Amino acid sequence: MSSETNQVAVEETPSQLSAETPVTPEALSSDWKENLSDEIKADKSLENIKDIEGLAKSYVHAQKLVGADKIPVPNKYATEKDWESVYEKLGRPKTAAEYKYELPENQEINQQALDNFSEQAHKLGLLPGQANGMVKFYNDMMAQSLQEVDGKAIAARENGTKELKQEWGQAYDQNISKASNLAKSVMDADFLNSNLADGTKLGDHPTIIKAFANLAGKMGEDNITQSSGPAYLTPGQIDKQIGELTQVGSAYWDKNHPNHTASVEEVLSLREKKNIV
Predict the structure, then answer these.
(1) How far, in Å, CA of 143 to CA of 136, rounded?
(2) pLDDT, tens digit, 9 for 90 and up, residues 212-245
(3) What Rg value do the Cα atoms of the chain yield, rounded?
(4) For the chain, is the Cβ count within 10 Å smaller at the N or the C terminus?
(5) pLDDT tens readout for residues 124-180
(6) How far apart are CA 130 and CA 230, in angstroms?
(7) How many angstroms separate the CA atoms of 184 and 160, rounded?
(8) Is 234 helix (H, G, I), strand (E, B) or coil?
């Protein structure tokens, strides 16, 4: 009797233990690698797999890739022909002429330069999106560069104008007209519009303008250099005339001199002209 009882107890123990200690997901998550060999456990491909479900997903994904169209990566011994095959599988156009670019409207295009770029892009295996991105990057860079150059040119021209107006006073328009007429008659317009290192256009630089104005003045009555409207004196010329009228012993200082009143009025007029810019 006791023997049979012991046998029943022994047979029931496993089922009782199984019912009382169920296998939880947490147990599977922490112990799923326990029955693997040390070599497989240490494989880096398993580092990010936390549980059985993760392992199953990885396996399913790998199986799907078995039938996918794969592109072998050429090694260091690969020929140009090997790379050509890779480029074509990746989606490179069959010919350079098939590249399409998103260019700004009304942009002046150098078609020869664009065709040369397409040839080089095709040779290097660029995809359509990559080639278009390179052209867009270049256009944006050039637009920003031109904007900066124009900004410098405008600032330099404004500073030059201020400098010349201070020096020439009322004679500014007259001298500018003479200098411009002479410059246009002897120099190419594109050359005058070329940019100097500081961003100033050659034809806007104060030194160049003054040089042409001085040369025009020395040429006298030449029709090329003449400007329309009344002639004006520069502040320097006005100071010279005032100095001559107010020198010691002149009519300006002698109230009894018949030209005293006229001299005083002329000096006042000259001083007013000098103060008008």
Answers:
(1) 10
(2) 888 887 776 455 445 555 566 778 878 888 888 8
(3) 46
(4) N
(5) 999 999 999 999 999 999 888 888 888 888 888 888 889 998 888 888 888 888 888
(6) 63
(7) 19
(8) coil
Check: CB of residue 213 under 8 Å from CB of residue 232: no
The first and second tokens of residue 183, run together, are: 């410059």
| CA atoms of 40 and 33, how far apart (whole Å) | 9
Say which amino acid occupies 62. Answer: A
Cα–Cα distance measured from residue 250 to residue 86, given in angstroms and rounded to the nearest whole number: 98
Residue 131 has a pLDDT of 95
Give the C-alpha separation, 128 to 135, whole Å. 11
Residue 160's CB is within 10 A of a number of other CB atoms, namely: 19
3-state secondary structure (DSSP) of residue 201: strand
**Residues contacting 222, CB < 8 A, separation 6+:** 216
SS3 category, 195? strand
- The CA-based angle 230-227-236, given to 5 degrees, is 65
